Amino acid sequence: MTYTTESAFSFASNRLNSDFQLADAVPATISLVKRLSTDDQLALLWYAYTEMGRSITPAAPGAARLQLAEGLLNSLKQMSHAQQLEAMRDLVERKNTPISRSYGILSNNTKLAFWYELSELMVQGFVVPMPTGYQPSRDVNETLATIKQLDFGQQITVLRKLVADMGVDPLAD
Fold it and tell me: Under CATH, which number does the domain 35-164 receive?
């Protein structure tokens, strides 16, 4: 093979595009998720934690001070299922509510662990479960497939960023 300036540029350009695509995967995936409706975002989190939860588990509860979220989780468990769903929607929509403010002061890792615990409480029936027979939308399925294609570190980064942006930080502003 003959090496020319053009072939070297082509090789470098392809390499840069590949590296850029890897680096760009996290923000692009986050953008996909944020375009989903509130309920689709909640469904996506549910599926992410139930389908990939076994690999997320060590990164979430082990790295976080979940005891800081215990009061918030206990408050949610005391609510009716309708109130629980509304509180979760409020978190996604960043509505200024007592639950959203309590959530907003948690660290990002604790927020990640909070959603993991919430999914566990849903499975156990303490928190509103996914509706029987629920079928995720095409957008949820496609976004979940995109997340599954990321490497483990990118998956955690996407989930951490998503849950970090939820709720209302009462200390901001």
Answer: 1.10.2090.10
